[in-house]
Amino acid sequence: MPITHIDVHPLKEFAKHQTVIDVVSDGKVGLDAPAKPQTYRDKVSWFAIFYRYIPDAVNLSGLKYAFNPTEVRWRRTIWLLIVIACCGVSTQQIINRILYYMSRPVSVDVVYKYQDSVPFPSVAICNINAFRSSQLNDTDMRKFLTTWQTMDESVNVTEFKSVLSSYNMTDMYYTLAHQLNDSVRHIKWNQRYYDTSVMTVRMTDWGVCFVFNDIDNGQEGLMVSSPGRLYGFEIVLSAEQEDYFFQPQTRYGAGFQVLLYDRGTEPQVEGQGFSIGTGVQTTVGVDVVEMRNLEEPVGECRNKTLNYYDTYSYPSCALECLSDVYIRQCGCKTKAMKGQ
Length: 340
Fold this sequence. Notes:
Helix content is 30%, strand content 16%.
């Protein structure tokens, strides 16, 4: 039986690097001296690290194919050109966005202009009562209006056909409405007194109204140079409540419906006006906001010529389209509509 002898050599400073256990031919087991340790620089260069490991570490798909030693040269060349081209385009985009940001671009410009004077709007004043009772005494129209305003949709129009056919509705509104000289007692503008010639009587969706600073008056538009009631428009009105006729259910009380609107456009008193009662003094402040809409291709606005109005505005355009529909469908129109 062979004798096994084990020699143990002390592990000095090299034991921590490498230990080799050899089985010798005579049956002895021995420990060889550790090999000399290699430095990092002796193992691999920095270029080799980039060449072998970086392409797999970074998230750039084409880079590992460009530096893969197992790929053929022409394929690596193509991938390298693709990577360089993509990096160039990306760098160009980054530089372009940086330069654009440094130029301080804006998408919205807000400009405040402080002017010495601003245009004064038109003022429409409409009596809540549409018809004077004194003008309807002993007339068939009074009977029809009383029946219509109390029964509404159940009115038998055929019964009043002869009455309605004998009236021009527009002329009837002007004739039965409260008159300008009877309703207006006092007019003052910019600390000066005026007579009723500065007012215009016109038909609106509410009925007959008195308009100050109307474009149809033939006078130039008024300008405001100072704030405050002393430099604005002042008017004293008489509602003539003793001459009121029975009104629809949508018009309660006595007083006036007032609307301030852009001069030259069509007033929408019914939808945008506000009410003023009798026996009170009302002060109204005005803020003028001017908007300029962009045309195509930035916006959807464009110049349009209206058939019934000289100045384009959204209310005028909407009313003109509605008038055409009424005339086309039934051959008639309401009192405020224009057209043939």
